Amino acid sequence: xxxxxxxxxxxxxxxxxxxxxxxxxxxxxxxxxxxxxxxxxxxxxxxxxxxxxxxxxxxxxxxxxxxxxxxxxxxxxxxxxxxxxxxxxxxxxxxxxxxxxxxxxxxxxxxxxxxxxxxxxxxxxxxxxxxxxxxxxxxxxxxxxxxxxxxxxxxxxxxxxxxxxxxxxxxxxxxxxxxxxxxxxxxxxxxxxxxxxxxxxxxxxxxxxxxxxxxxxxxxxxxxxxxxxxxxxxxxxxxxxxxxxxxxxxxxxxxxxxxxxxxxxxxxxxxxxxxxxxxxxxxxxxxxxxxxxxxxxxxxxxxxxxxxxxxxxxxxxxxxxxxxxxxxxxxx
Length: 332
Ligand code: UDP
What we know:
Elements: E1 5-9, H1 14-25, E2 29-34, E3 50-52, H2 58-67, E4 72-75, H3 82-87, H4 89-109, E5 114-120, H5 143-162, E6 165-171, E7 173-175, H6 193-201, E8 208-211, E9 223-224, E10 226-228, H7 229-239, E11 249-254, E12 260-261, H8 262-273, E13 279-282, H9 297-302, H10 312-325
Parallel strand pairs: 1-2, 1-4, 2-3, 4-5, 5-6, 6-11, 7-10, 8-13
Antiparallel strand pairs: 9-12
Helix pairs in contact: 1-7, 2-4, 4-5, 6-8, 6-10, 8-10
Bound molecules: uridine-5'-diphosphate (UDP).
């Protein structure tokens, strides 16, 4: 594959930083733009060009696009706290929709015609049927999911009007960390299940609360599709050669297709760590669908996407290693 100059917006964040490393490993040339609101400078290796700034700053972005001769933009810089999106929707529509529109306008002005979006299974809301295929009706149930769906629609219209070629990946539950332990997952605040359970195992939290034990699932707790962050990253790279023709519109679910319950996550952390996790049972968290898992055969077939981490244990093992070597995250 020829080397492509890729601007990774949000490249210092969790998924973006993993993608940057996979881009380099595949022989591409990533350039990172991140405002470091949630990103970590340490997550980007020293030799990668790094620009600290905001995707909504058109003058700044245009300079980077032109100066680095960017051919494709990958966009990871969204806000992703569902509860906060309900309380403060304008913050989410501004960051996840308005600013990316400015980014797209800047790209068109600079004649950069290829784009890859981090979208989400939250665009499906509570689906009527499982597993979720790309044609499953998208009916988001919170402003976070809606802002991503709106951006997908903006991309469609831009492809039709201006020939933008894009891929939108609808991630299921991104998890795990780089195999070699050099980069990882460090959110503040942390709300995701796997890191929280690991922190409880390590004694950094008193316990983990299971949000609901009365769901219509085999063990009464929610089912989710946990997919390794490096598998997600590799799908982005596999999509690059498919964006050659102007006006391409590609949509893919990215998950392993295997549902795992909250209790299974806790059991697996105990198995991988050899430690007991203190557990509390609590009420349901508002807005949590009982089950979400993907049919990702479209990505596997069309992009030849291969899942390297098909099971929860191998995913959690990488996360466990990172938390062991970085008990306080990046900065300490
Ligand atoms: N969850 C839980 N306790 C927690 C955090 C999460 O029981 O402290 C559950 C949550 O209800 C969901 C699953 O774990 O069923 C995954 O939640 P997470 O926030 O990691 O991802 P989401 O599926 O909401 O994107």
